[in-house]
Amino acid sequence: MDSSLTRSEVHLRKTLSELEAGPGVQIFFSEEGNVQEELGDVDSMFRMISTVHGIDLDPALARCFMRFDRIACHWRFERPGTRITGEFRTRNLLAVLFARPPEQDWASTPSEERLYSELRVLDDHPGGGSGTFAALRVGPAVTRPEVWYHDFRRGAFELDLDYCAYLAALTVTKGVSGWHYLFADVSLKVEPFAFYEGTLTSALDVLPQLFPEYDYTSLRARLADRTR
Fold this sequence. Notes:
Layout: H1 7-21, E1 25-32, H2 42-53, E2 71-79, E3 82-90, H3 93-98, H4 110-117, E4 119-124, E5 133-137, E6 146-151, E7 155-158, H5 163-173, H6 195-210, H7 217-226
Antiparallel strand pairs: 1-2, 2-3, 4-5, 5-6, 6-7
Helix pairs in contact: 1-5, 6-7
């Protein structure tokens, strides 16, 4: 392990190598960007976020400090009767907060316009996501930004995750399609979400076989809750 990397950086880099080595996993693209050492340590980053954005983040979020300017993968796994895909493209917190809000093409009400104006894209899926992204909802008084997931076919949903938990879940799920809905208050038994019941059932059968180091028990429990 590179001792110069943070814990989160190690886990994200390992996620790429696990996918690249996964038996039967086809990689469409995999990209490990640069670690931006000029960002300094976590205290320096948090001070800059406070100075520039007026956001004083909860110190607990320091535990997932990472400095990649980007780290991404788009992949697929197939075997007879099963096909799953996954994708992620994320970057460091400072880059996320410096970005402009996403386009508001989907906003139709004042409350939706306000929501999208407060979002900063954390993780998007340009290869296969068809307009999906996860974002932090930020504001001057917010110390622990909410995490939201946007799908232009289904809307925007707050996730039962904070920033650190999102990155941790990403390393376990490998960005498999639909994983965000395990953390959203939706039923996968009804439209427009029913497609993901089969997809996530297959994913939580395949992922433990490909990556036995990880514990998928809690994700299976969430899937059971979403499919009652």
